[in-house]
Amino acid sequence: MAKADNFQHPDYYLMDELLTDEHRLIRDSARAWVKKEVSPIVEEACQSCVFPKQWIKGLAEIGAFGPYIPQEYGGPGLDQISYGLIMQELERGDSGLRSTASVQSSLVMFPIYTYASEELKKKYLPKLASGDLMGCFGLTEPDHGSNPNGMLSNIKDKGDHYVLNGAKMWISNAPFADIAVVWAKDEAGDIRGMVIERGWAGFTTPETHGKWSLRASATGELVFDNVKVPKGNVFTTVKGLKGPLSCLNSARYGIAWGAIGAAMDCYVSALNYSKERIQFGRPIGGFQLTQKKLAEMITEITKAQLLTWRLGVLKNEHRATPAQISMAKRNNVFMALTIAREARQIHGGMGITGEYPIMRHMMNLESVITYEGTHDIHLLITGNDITGIPAFE
Ligand code: TGC
Ligand code: FAD
Predict the structure, then answer these.
(1) pTM exceeds 0.85, yes or no
(2) What's the CATH fold of domain 242-387?
(3) Which CATH architecture has domain 15-130?
(4) Burial status of residue 338 (CB atoms within 10 A of its CB: 0-12, 13-18, 19 or more)
């Protein structure tokens, strides 16, 4: 039988006082749902490499699909801190769960809300918010990951429609998504965004197998073989790499919060274990080397909480820059991965088992540190921002 999930978050600097009553309510609702619906089955889902589809309705009910999308399009119309807190709670459950919600919210609903025609917004957004439609986001290609500007996927103008050819790789939610927001170059070489529907001739989504990470999130390819795309499904208000990168700003922001959730789960588990596990006649938490690990964990979590809350305030005021978001994504994911590795040591042999969430978080975070821009790409974004000299090429 699954162990009871009694998680309470560490709040060393009384960060809760910076949240509104509404923020705390939203956070607590998300946490309660994760405890009831996710914790009892997440280990089994990861071990068997399955995304439990029954999570979709619950995610919609807690407002995890498009938290900041206005109510007129079916979203809950929440602020950016609420969005972050929901992502934190989901990733406390599992990074794959947060991935599913991140993609739906920031990479599918955000571009449709920001760049699509009124007709497409009305057609897709309410159903995406309710989970009746699920989406995925195709930017990465087999030969173009960190450098999406080099993409080969392309559309050709055929008068009343476009024809799309190409392939995308590593696409979260692809195997079951009903629609895909896809980025491809037009004949002028400009990157264009468009909505593709499952079932259109020439569009397939083969699943990616053999992952040791994000096993509770479905990953796949998007393959386009002369897919006929109605002109109305292609965004007209944005051209160039800034289209997809603007979506990444929103997703990376959510990940910065999410990573704190994974880190907190590892820290709390390690702290509890260190007080219960007796070696050499005393709890291992009484040894200085264990205390060093735990003290550094709570220090790093507290720093990340402060960084991320401030970023949320800036985001609410439309003042958060892409480089500030990169700094938070990079810092917090590395922080979480470091904590997961240290927590794994504190749990000794038990740390490699599914009895504790540690190894699952650790393996998940190995994807999170790579997707949405790798650890090193985000460092180069900061370097570019402070020197004014891009070092990508
Ligand atoms: P660069 O010349 O710097 O910029 C091209 C144009 O884009 C603008 N721009 C941005 N706009 C909005 N937001 C941002 N963050 C932006 N960054 C740049 C820029 O101003 C410029 O605009 P304009 O008007 O002058 O044309 O472009 P570059 O080719 O040198 O690339 C820069 C670089 C390396 C930072 C960028 O390519 C990058 O971020 N690469 C990382 C790729 C990445 O993050 N891929 C993620 C794929 S999606 C994913 O992983 C989903 S996982 C989901 C899950 O499961 O949770
Ligand atoms: P590469 O770009 O080949 O990088 C390999 C290494 O080279 C990295 O360490 C990188 O930092 C380094 N490197 C590259 N360029 C430079 C440079 N200029 N300077 C220094 N070092 C450099 N993509 C989507 O579009 N949609 C999704 O839904 C999605 N979901 C994903 C889910 C999972 C589980 C994973 C693993 C990936 C997902 N991705 C998705 C793809 C992800 O965004 C890419 O994996 C990521 O951007 C890195 O690209 P790459 O894997 O091709 O690595």
Answers:
(1) yes
(2) Butyryl-CoA Dehydrogenase, subunit A; domain 3 (1.20.140)
(3) Orthogonal Bundle (1.10)
(4) middle
